[in-house]
Amino acid sequence: MLEGEKADAVLYNGVFFTPGNVSLAGCLAVRSGRIVYIGSEAGSRSFTGKNTAFIDCGGNSVLPGFFDGHCHAFMGGRLMNSCLLTSGQTKSDYFRLIREYTDEHGEKESILGFGWCHMPFESIGPSRKDLDRLVPDRPAIFLSVDYHSAWVNSKALEIAGINRNTSDPTGGRIESEPGSDEPHGCLREMLTIRMVTMKLPQPGKEQWKNALRTYMKRAAAGGITSLFDAGILNSSQEPGFCAAMEMDKAGELTVRMRLSQLCTPDAGVKQVPELVAARKKYQSENVHLSVAKVFMDGTIEGHTGFLLKPYEDRKGYRGKPVWELENFKETALELRKQGFQIHVHSISDGATRNTLDGLEYAGGKELRHTLAHLELVDPSDIKRFAELGLVASIQPSRYYMDSDYYQETVPMLAKKRANERYLLGDFKKAGVNIAFGSDWPWGTVSSSMDPFKAIGTAVIRSRMKNDSIDEYELMEEVDNPYEYNEHIDLKSAIEYHTYGGAYQNFLEDVTGTIEVGKKADLIVLNEDVFSKRDKSPKDTEVVMTIFNGRVIYSR
Fold this sequence. Notes:
Blueprint: E1 9-18, E2 22-31, E3 34-39, H1 41-44, E4 53-56, E5 61-64, E6 66-71, H2 73-79, E7 83-84, H3 91-104, E8 111-116, H4 128-134, E9 140-144, E10 149-152, H5 154-160, E11 173-176, E12 183-188, H6 190-197, H7 205-222, E13 224-229, H8 238-249, E14 256-262, H9 272-281, E15 287-295, H10 325-337, E16 341-346, H11 349-362, E17 370-373, H12 379-388, E18 391-394, H13 403-419, H14 425-429, E19 433-436, H15 451-460, H16 490-496, H17 499-504, E20 522-525, E21 542-547, E22 550-554
Helix pairs in contact: 2-7, 7-8, 10-11, 11-12
């Protein structure tokens, strides 16, 4: 072998997780960003030259780089530099954090924040009057930790033109003061929130580049080398797409990105030509805009999830679908004709039923349409996923019982239905294609982009201690909370967070498994996770992340 054909790097003394869920001890060689050899140490010697770097894996597991099959890299990166409320638990905590931030940032024309929970507030959400006392002089908007609600002050309502005569947008709700039509200060769902955010100064390319840099630093430490971004939902989209393209062309990206465009019910089929035109503009080596993002409902905690049976605490009320079924059917059909994969936010069983009906009508099994979140699914619908060739995008880091379960979920759904959420084993048994994701930064205060938090929770399905996802406790509770028997094995969980996302995004020939010819997207762990007695990744950490053959994180 000529010197120019030698490996750039050889990873040795590793246990490599290869296709078929087989752990192979030995060496791996990388050249020009691709894997060129996997096997014994003796066999690797022909690939080594004077310029080959050697990486000792310490007898630990080496996995494919993680694929986050559903996250918000742009928005999350931006929000990490906003007024964060995630450390708070009470109204007083939130008030203090807001006051501190606004005092420090008098130069900002408007205030953006993120991370409040529903529990401290009444059912109609936080009040503009409280926020007016804290931020009286400029528009302020604070997104809830699940993103599906926003707390706004009077200045924000004013610039959006929202008043007592404003009608609710499709699939959304403007909460009103009790006994009045005056806006209370809480906006429900994305199209309602956009009434304010689209009136605020919009982030430009440089702001989005900084947001992606913030995201990529965190992602590299967690071993994430590929992602599906589920939308820039509260701002103009194209500056973000431009930022990603420019970063890729400059060699700055350390993730492979599959992007999505928002598709709204009011625009229906009329918006499809615009989606097609944008898709043509944003394609590069590691950036591909190829997906239409659709919201079919909201969230259960906001009473905007669309259920098959009524909420326990609102008799006769099932929530409202964001899309009327016939409109969704015809729009999905047109998207399928134009070759778009459709990625659907579907939290509740009613929304999932409508989505399945619409996608069955539209066809496009070859496009791998994807349903995300799937918090509450009628078991009879699971087999339809496999029949229609759909992908279940699941966020297991939420699969635990914390205080919100008792204070919020049980009153809304009653205990039996609350415990039937978050099915996972049934999807696996039905042969459904599964891709794990984080939904970062949305979810709950304890949610994390760390794939091992998701994998661990999928395997253990336990109650949390002290509301901390870091403190796993393996227990089979009375009543099997969150259906303990829905847990899955460790190797399958890792496969869903690597190959699963690659399959979802048509990248299975590029990444997602450790095979000769594929991109060298790899992570080295601090232990051989498969030899552990308890078979859980409770203490597992990434010590090195390699993207395209280049080390992007090491400790």
